[in-house]
Design a protein that fits this description.
This is DUF58 domain-containing protein. Pfam families: DUF58 (PF01882). By secondary structure, the protein is of the alpha/beta class. It has two domains: 239 residues, Rossmann fold (3-Layer(aba) Sandwich); 43 residues, no CATH class. Helices cover 39% and strands 25% of the residues. The strands form three sheets. Strands 6-5-4-7-8-11 form a six-stranded mixed sheet, with helices on both faces. Strands 1-3-2 form a three-stranded antiparallel sheet. The protein has a two-stranded antiparallel sheet with strand order 9-10. Helix 2 crosses helix 4 and helix 4 runs antiparallel to helix 5.
Length: 291
């Protein structure tokens, strides 16, 4: 299984996305099912209550048996990928990857996987300067568009305000929205956006990204920490503060997960030290439930 640092070392986002995703395609939920569509698939015996218009009368005349023509109905979805591109995503883990680096790999892999499932996939990147939005499409040129956008993405400033985010939830559209964020906010702005996305799209998979060195607090000795979004600094001894920090972090993570699930979000915590398989599995699971 490829680690995120090995994927990143390829320096080729399309190749990394394909390598990460293809191992999950086998056994994944197909994007088509049998039903009363236009493309013929197979026959099945007539059962009481079936629509008589779907009977194959020619076959009945030849065989004296009644069969229905089964066809395939496209159950492709609209998948909207949302990237938190605020400055806190520049936090770097001990493996050399920033949260933004990991998010690029993850979203590119999800875009590849969604297109392989026959879904229309789009991308929105959130930054204080505005929304960079690529509407969901299923054409073959969409993946290169999204790869290019992700490769050029930069994490800057604070999470955008409500007015900037308004176009993202201005229209109701049944979709699977996948949001990747570290959930660092000042006054509940991310939480408010997720609630609006839940109301307008119906299904939201929240991938909460935490750096490995945030989880284990691997820092040592006296250090100065700087907030990547506000620039504020604090001096402390990492060895002395480790236990208290980890206790508070565990409580925050529990509270965050509970609050997200109470809002009806499908919440999944990720570490930048972990392979991408957990997130890809959650995506396929959520997609199967929607199809």
């Amino acid at each position: 299984m490829l680690t995120p640092e090995l994927l990143y070392a390829l320096r080729n986002l399309p190749l990394a996305a394909r390598q990460a995703a293809e191992g999950f395609l086998a056994g994944a939920h197909a994007s088509r099912r049998h039903g009363a569509g236009m493309e013929f698939s197979q026959y099945r015996p007539y059962q009481p209550g079936d629509d008589l218009r779907r009977l194959d009368w020619r076959l009945a005349a030849r065989s004296d048996r009644y069969y229905l023509r089964e066809s395939e109905v496209d159950t492709s979805l609209v998948v909207n990928l949302v990237l938190d591109a605020s400055a806190s995503m520049n936090h770097r883990d001990d493996n050399g990857l920033t949260k933004l680096d990991y998010a690029r790999l993850l979203l590119a892999s999800l875009a590849y996987l969604a297109q392989k499932q026959g879904d229309a996939v789009g991308l929105t990147m959130l930054s204080p300067s505005g929304l960079q939005h690529y509407p969901a499409r299923a054409d073959t040129r969409q993946l290169p568009r999204l790869y290019h956008a992700l490769e050029a993405a930069e994490a800057t400033g604070t999470f955008p305000d409500t007015a900037t985010l308004a176009p993202l939830t201005a229209r109701r559209q049944r979709a699977l929205t996948v949001c990747v964020s570290d959930l660092y906010e000042e006054a509940g702005e991310i939480n408010h956006l997720l609630a609006r996305l839940r109301a307008t799209s119906g299904d939201v998979l929240l991938l909460h990204l935490v750096a490995g060195n945030e989880l284990n607090f691997s820092h040592k000795g006296p250090l100065t920490f700087r907030d990547l979004e506000t620039g504020q600094t604090i001096q402390l001894n990492a060895d002395e503060q480790r236990a208290a920090y980890q206790q508070q972090l565990r409580q925050w993570l529990r509270d965050t997960a509970q609050a997200a699930r109470q809002q009806g979000l499908d919440y999944h915590q990720l570490s930048t030290a972990d392979p991408l398989d957990g997130a890809l599995r959650e995506f396929l699971k959520r997609r199967q439930l929607m199809s």
